[in-house]
Amino acid sequence: MTAYKYARVPEGGERIEVSGGEFQVPNKPIIPFIEGDGTGPDIWAASVRVFDAAVALAYGGKRKVAWMEILAGEKAFKTTGEWMPAETLEAVREFKIAIKGPLTTPVGGGIRSLNVALRQELDLYACIRPVRYFQGVGAPMKHPEKVNIVIFRENVEDVYSGIEFRAGTPEADKLRAFLKTEFNKNVREGSAIGIKPMSPFGSKRLMAMAIKYALKRGRKSVTIMHKGNIMKFTEGGFKDWCYEEAREQFGTLTVTEADVGKAGSTARADAVIIKDRIADSMFQQLLLRPEEYEVIATPNLNGDYVSDAAAAQVGGLGIAPGGNVGDNAAVFEATHGTAPKYAGLNKINPGSVILSGVMMFEQMGWQEAADLIMRGMEHAITAKTVTYDLARQMPGSTEVSTSAFGDAVIAGMKS
Ligand code: NAP
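A: This is the predicted complex of the input protein with NAP.
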């Protein structure tokens, strides 16, 4: 076991292991958490009470999470002088499943984003974002209840891989000259240049995770969202590799949209339908015919845009959860930022971290706890007992504090 300088490993807790590609979760798992900056402490205080209450209610003391605080962001910097101490990454590597609040992105100092660092260091290659409607939330769509999708966004490749050169630097100029001399490709003088690497390996493992999710959860289709009509070898490659993965690894369990109902198909009647849509059309479809989509697999940049757009469609951007999942570790997180102007005011909505906890418990196989939290959230929102952000979109609602919203969720679990 790693010797931790700042973190304290809780006594009596046990390690989650990975075997056969699955997380093996003991009854008293050690789960590291990052409280988060700004409004993070308020949000975490409410969320952890909800998590513990759900586990207690579901398992009556047989199961219990042993929480272990690990440091990142401003809190880490103040204590250790580092924004992302090595032992924080080590703790996630060792204990496998973690949850985090929002972190301040340091300005300057060579760190692009702590979240990107976490994803890349731990190879958390899928960013999973479920988007569904909560009855009563003000939403811009006429029928937001028709949206119920889960987006699998590739998390470590594409233009996010960090190979980017500032305009006017010797590196950018050298690359430009290389492209001209070696490939006779013209890039305007003084340009910034970024690289978009996408591999069969990275694309296929994302698609495999999306298909397994659809199979496990009885979702009817997986849609590959790409811009392969223009970026033929990167995004087009993604589409082809995803289809290949479905065909080669999930033979009779999947069927392409084009082959549905065709004579001679060997696919099972309940096979997951694999379709693809060009990225721009996907945005239209999610507005016009959202009920036709269930799971979406997409490269990094498309996924970034479509996750927030879909969450906004159902009025749920402030409560959208997320999980960054790899084969050996997973970190669940708030998708919003630190909202620093509300820090310490007990005002902000903790829903994003609470729903990320639902995802975490589902990943752990603690479905009963996940279901109770979801039930509590539904009750709290239907009763219109909500924080300021939802209250302003919900006429006739009662505005409550962060902690009181947590109380309402806990009460809702029991009703
Ligand atoms: P932000 O913190 O998400 O806040 C923008 C606005 O969104 C808030 O002022 C608030 O709107 C609303 N909001 C965000 N979270 C909310 C919640 N839980 N409940 C209710 N309303 C919420 O974005 P930002 O101001 O651009 O970023 C602040 C810092 O967070 C930056 O350092 C940024 O880099 C970082 N950040 C971190 C993450 C992450 O760790 N995952 C993600 C994004 C940004 P109103 O003002 O209308 O009330």
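The longest strand covers residues 126-132. The longest helix spans residues 40-59.
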